[in-house]
Amino acid sequence: MVQAPSHPGAHEGYMPGFGNDFETEALPGALPQGMNSPQKVNYGLYGEQLSGTAFTDIRPERTWCYRIRPSVKHSKRYEKIDLPLWRSAPNVDPDVVSLGQYRWNPVPHSDTPLTWLTGMRTMTTAGDVNTQVGMASHVYLVTSSMVDEYFYSADSELLVVPQEGRLRFCTELGIIDIEPQNIAILPRGLVYRVELLDGPARGFICENYGAKFNLPGRGPIGANCMANPRDFKAPVAAFEDREVPSTVTIKWCGQFHRTEIGHSPLDVVAWHGNYAPYKYDLKTYCPVGAILFDHPDPSIFTVLTAPSGQPGVANIDFVLFRERWMVAEDTFRPPWYHKNIMSEMMGNIYGQYDAKPQGFVPGGVSLHNMMLPHGPDRDAFEGASNADLKAVKLDNTMSFMFETRFPQHLTPFAANEAPLQDDYIDCWDSLEKKFDGTPGKK
Ligand SMILES: [Fe+2]
Distance from the CA of 343 to the center of ligand 1, in angstroms? Predict the structure, then answer.
């Protein structure tokens, strides 16, 4: 296992707030004040803008970087490389049946050392990367740090949900460390290197081809609860001035390209702007829910939402099912049976999920695709139908959902290589017909 290299010059620290216009400098006076593009930048730095939206967007997102070399010096001629297990939409395989309720055990680690790039395993794709709609879901298996190797995705923003092991993202705009029950967001176009802090590391990725993740509108809930803006953390500036042979790999329109350079591209000494990576501690998510009877739609648990072009219909919702109190009276408390236009990729971070007491284990994944019925298994149904409805703490549980308006297509890896539970659909077999026409029967 390759250990993370040390970072003698690294700054550590984070700045709180969601989508703030941050400013940060790793050397005093490196950040120009009162203007973006002075004739000469302090320390001989180059000024450069990284734009995450069109210039004319209603709310433009961009960051001004002051760096040792401009990004054109981190880019030479490209050669295509193959990362066959990292797939992009459209990826519809005629031999794969995506229509069905599916569940997988955790994808196991192998003896082969795997980095962030070689360890990515695409489970599903949706939409079209070329038109910037939809998403892909992946499981990552990392046992090796990237060394003098850098990456960016021109296709997508990456939402990272660790389930096992700690990771360090050394990015152009600073350093982010995450562990299970944290998430990280890596914006489109941001260059970074991924190191293993302790491993092996496994987790889930939502690769968002569309508009960026944002906080959902809280509506009548008001200004507090759910995910609060101050709990999102962007890194302070940190830079490397290291001249060693290095590679930069770029994901662009679903294909991978590599270029060779002679130095670290993580050379931004100071930056300001609102287009930055960030992390969030899922334990700070403040759930709101039923306090008398019934329960609201699961959208009440949305952490982040990435809009589609249709108001109120998400390209992706990232939804969290965490510890909470269950207090509703005369109510079937687990998620109800349903069939939904949205397609739901779920992952278990730890513990036990209330609709599926068995089988959906930490590291495991399930898929309930567009307009396919699903709901509690028999044990969950019988247990919840006969439970003494006192206040109960739903403890030892954290699962999430990547929900998209688009159908999700299985990759050949998900269908043929990942540890699919062939008997998952049987979990509903033993649900009984209870109806016999007798009034008042329950
Ligand atoms: Fe569902």
Answer: 8
User: Which class for 218: exposed (0-12), middle (13-18), buried (19 or more C-beta within 10 A)?
Assistant: middle
pLDDT digits (tens, 9 = 90+) for 322-345: 999 999 999 999 989 999 999 999
Q: Over 129-141, what HEC string results?
A: CCCCEEEEEEEEE
How far apart are the C-alpha atoms of 273 and 23, rounded to whole Å?
A: 7
Residue 282 CA to residue 161 CA, distance in Å, equals 10
pLDDT of residue 12: 64
User: Which positions ≥6 away from 29 have C-beta within 8 Å?
Assistant: 42, 43
Maximum Cα–Cα distance across the chain = 86
Cis amide bond preceding 200, omega within 30: yes
Cα–Cα distance list, 247 to 33, 153, 193, 244 (Å)? 34, 14, 11, 10
- By annotation, the residues acting in catalysis are 295
Alpha-carbon 343 to chain mean position: 16
Closest CA to 149 of 276, 266, 237: 266
Torsion angle of C-alpha atoms 170, 172, 176, 180, degrees rounded to 10: -70
Evaluate the omega torsion of the peptide bond into residue 412 and state whether it is cis, within 30 degrees of 0: no
Give the distance (Å) from ligand 1 centre to CA of residue 174.
Answer: 37
Q: Which residue bears the tokens 């400013």? A: 23
Predicted confidence (pLDDT) per residue in 245-282, tens digit: 999 999 999 999 999 999 999 999 999 999 999 999 99
Closest CA to 124 of 114, 137, 134: 137
**pTM higher than 0.90:** yes
The closest alpha carbon to 134, from 320, 304, 414, 342, belongs to 342
Taking the centre of ligand 1 as the mean of its atom positions, its distance from the CA of residue 338, in whole angstroms, is: 6
Q: 231 C-alpha to center of ligand 1: Å?
A: 28
DSSP E strands in 245-342: the ranges are 246-252, 255-261, 268-273, 278-281, 302-307, 314-326
Q: Cα(first)–Cα(last) distance of the chain, in Å?
A: 58
* Token code pair at residue 242: 């290291």
Could you give the residue ranges of the DSSP H alpha helices within 85-182? Answer: none
